[in-house]
Amino acid sequence: MFESMGPLTAGPWIYAVVAASVLLDVFLPLLPSGVLVIAAATAAAAGTGAAGQLHTVPDIVALIAIAATASVLGDLAAFRLARRGGVRLDRALARSRRLHAGQQSLGRALARGGGPLVVLARFAPAGRSLMSLGAGATTDRRTRDFLPWSAAAGVAWACYSVGLGYFGGHWLGANWLATGISVLALLAAGAGAAYLLRRPAPTG
C-alpha cells in the first residue's frame, strides 16, 4: 500500500506536512490532519517488520512530538487571535448560525467544566477551533491558564491518533482497510466528545 507514498514518507517531508496540517486546521477544520497522522503512523508500522527499512518510514515518537507541538502552537495562535479580535471576531462568528451556536455551547461547557473540557474538545469536530477561540475571547482566561490544558489536549490527541495508525497497521496489516478503520475510530471518538460537550449540565 505505502510503496506509492515512498517519496513522502522517506525523509522529513511527512513531518512537515503533518505539522502544517495540524497547525492550520484550527483555522481550517476541514483539513484532514487526523487522517494524515494516522496514515503516517500506519506507514511507520509497515516498515517496522522489514529489515533495513526502519530509516525510510516515519518515527512514531517524532510523529507524536510534532503533532502535539503543532496542535499547541495552533491553539495558542487561535487563542491570541481571539484575544485581540474581540468584537470583530464575535461579529464574524455571528454570521454563521452553526459557529455561533457552537461557540455558545462550548462556552457553557468551558464555564461548567473548566480546563479538562479543552482536552475533550480537541477530539470533537471543530471543537478545537471553537474552544481555542472561545477561551481567547473570554476576558478572564489567561494564556498561562489555557496553555497546560492545550498541551494535555495536544498530547492526548497525538498519542491516540498515532496509536490508532500504528497498532492498526500491526494488527490489520499496512493497507487501506487498516487506515480506514483507524480513521473511523478517530471519528467515533470525535462523535463521543461532541455528544459529551453538548450534554446539558446537571441541575440541582
What does this structure look like?
- The chain is built from ten helices and no strands.
- By secondary structure, it is mainly α.
- The longest helix has 30 residues, at 143-172.
- The protein is globular and about 45 Å long.
- It starts with 5 loop residues before the first helix and ends in a 6-residue tail after the last helix.
- Mean pLDDT is 77; it is low at 1-7 and 49-55.
Which structural traits does this protein have?
globular; 204 residues; disordered N terminus; 0% strand
Instruction: Kindly report the average pLDDT value.
Output: 77
Structural class call reads mainly alpha
What is the C-alpha radius of gyration, as a whole number of Å?
18 Å
First-to-last CA distance: 55 Å
Percent strand: under 5%
